[in-house]
Amino acid sequence: MKINYNNKTFRVAGENKDVTHFNYFQKGAIVWGEYEGGGVTKGTLIAKIDEDGVLDMHYHHLNASLEFKLGRCISTPKILDDGRIELFEQYESVNTAEVSRGEITLVEVL
């Protein structure tokens, strides 16, 4: 599945207006972006994309308490009926006392 992430905006799925927003850019097989909101003061990410549109990324950010968080995430895309991209993400933060893992869903903002 060919997906172009260039100039795409995503937000954490849900109805809360104060959620994290992501701005993605792409050149070839490299995707990068910035994100903030929902407890994240400022963050950046870089990823490589495979032929199915799956992103293998590394991220880091400062949270609202100005604590650094960094980790890795695998982001799997799904095309919704309305044509938007939904991303199911499995992440792990590695700079905390214990490795923390979680899942989150992002949805494209049109």
Please explain how this structure is put together.
It is a single chain. The chain has 110 residues and is an all-beta fold. It has a single domain, classed as Avidin-like (Lipocalin). The chain is 0% helix and 64% strand. It is built from no helices and eight strands. Strands 1-2-3-4-5-6-7-8 form an eight-stranded antiparallel barrel. The radius of gyration is 13 Å and the shape is globular. The two termini are 20 Å apart.
List the helices and strands and how they pair.
Blueprint: E1 8-12, E2 21-27, E3 30-37, E4 40-49, E5 55-63, E6 68-79, E7 85-93, E8 100-109
Antiparallel strand pairs: 1-2, 1-8, 2-3, 3-4, 4-5, 5-6, 6-7, 7-8
- Strand-residue proportion: over 45%
* Sheet with most strands: strand arrangement: 1-2-3-4-5-6-7-8
> What is the tally of beta strands?
8
Mean pLDDT metric: 93
Low-confidence parts: none
CA-based gyration radius: 13 Å
CATH superfamily: Avidin-like
Tally the structural domains.
Answer: 1
What is the rounded distance between the termini? 20 Å
Structural class: mainly beta
Fraction of helical residues: under 10%
What summary fits the major beta sheet? 8 strands, antiparallel, barrel
Name the overall outline: globular
CATH topology: Lipocalin
How many helical elements? 0
